[in-house]
């Protein structure tokens, strides 16, 4: 028998930093081995200004490998369609997502919030999104909720009839919430942020879907606290991954 609670409709995403081994000194340590051999972390941390200068130099001239010697693991809860975009990022990333083969999926679904722009204007590559009308917001929410309820009812009926989870899940929509662990290093995260956030100071413009941008913004906030010098250099040099 299915064991789900009542449906939940959400317009947010959640991002939690669950584990990290990432600090600016990791970048300095990795970079200086090229010219100075092995050094102690204490020696590297004695001159913060010089360290900031080196990180800026590495970022500006796109010497990328020193930014790979660190690790961050995030627990992310978002709609499935966000993860389909997420998994395009492969270099420097590891993923483990919850499985609909081994557990009953819960009825938690995405419905855009009031601030989500609903209308696309222009042609691909030169388009923008603008606010929808109250009528468009109403029909969007009502259509989504009705579709979600119908598909989840079908899912429950199949489970109750003894159909395997891996078969029954096929009726569920991409607006269903899923969760995953995502592990990356600073270099791979910077590449992700350069494509999945829209910032005025970005050298290369990006036009991400808002829902994955919400995830990216939360991840960036956590990373900026761990590696403030590296984040500042990323910002200073146009948000281009080295």
Automatic annotation (TrEMBL):
SUPFAM superfamilies linked to this entry: Thymidylate synthase-complementing protein Thy1
Molecular-function GO terms, alphabetical: flavin adenine dinucleotide binding; NADPH binding; thymidylate synthase (FAD) activity; thymidylate synthase activity
Keyword annotations: FAD, Flavoprotein, Methyltransferase, NADP, Nucleotide biosynthesis, Transferase
Catalyzed chemical reaction(s): dUMP + (6R)-5,10-methylene-5,6,7,8-tetrahydrofolate + NADPH + H(+) = dTMP + (6S)-5,6,7,8-tetrahydrofolate + NADP(+)
Pathway: Pyrimidine metabolism; dTTP biosynthesis
Protein's name according to its UniProt entry: Flavin-dependent thymidylate synthase
InterPro entries (alphabetical): Thymidylate_synthase_ThyX (IPR003669), Thymidylate_synthase_ThyX_sf (IPR036098)
Family classification: Belongs to the thymidylate synthase ThyX family.
Subunit structure: Homotetramer.
Function: Catalyzes the reductive methylation of 2'-deoxyuridine-5'-monophosphate (dUMP) to 2'-deoxythymidine-5'-monophosphate (dTMP) while utilizing 5,10-methylenetetrahydrofolate (mTHF) as the methyl donor, and NADPH and FADH(2) as the reductant.
């Amino acid at each position: 028998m299915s064991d789900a609670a009542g449906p939940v409709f959400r317009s947010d995403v959640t991002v939690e930093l669950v584990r990290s081994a990432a600090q600016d000194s990791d970048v300095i340590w990795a970079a200086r081995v090229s010219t100075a051999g092995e050094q102690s972390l204490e020696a590297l941390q004695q001159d913060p200004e010089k360290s900031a200068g080196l990180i800026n130099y590495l970022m500006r001239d796109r010497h990328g490998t020193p930014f790979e010697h660190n690790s961050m693991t995030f627990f992310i809860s978002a709609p499935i369609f966000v993860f389909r975009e997420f998994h395009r990022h492969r270099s420097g990333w590891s993923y483990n997502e919850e499985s609909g083969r081994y557990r009953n999926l819960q009825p938690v679904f995405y419905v855009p919030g009031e601030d989500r722009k609903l209308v696309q204007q222009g042609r691909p590559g030169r388009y923008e999104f603008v606010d929808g009308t109250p009528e468009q917001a109403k029909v969007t929410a009502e259509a989504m909720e009705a579709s979600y309820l119908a598909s989840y009812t079908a899912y429950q009926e199949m489970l109750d009839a003894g159909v395997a989870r891996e078969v029954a899940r096929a009726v569920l929509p991409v607006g269903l919430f899923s969760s995953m662990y995502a592990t990356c290093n600073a270099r791979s995260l910077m590449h992700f942020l350069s494509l999945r956030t829209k910032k005025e100071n970005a050298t290369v413009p990006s036009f991400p879907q808002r829902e994955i941008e919400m995830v990216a913004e939360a991840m960036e906030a956590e990373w900026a606290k761990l590696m403030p010098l590296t984040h500042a250099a990323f910002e200073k040099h146009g948000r281009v991954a080295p």
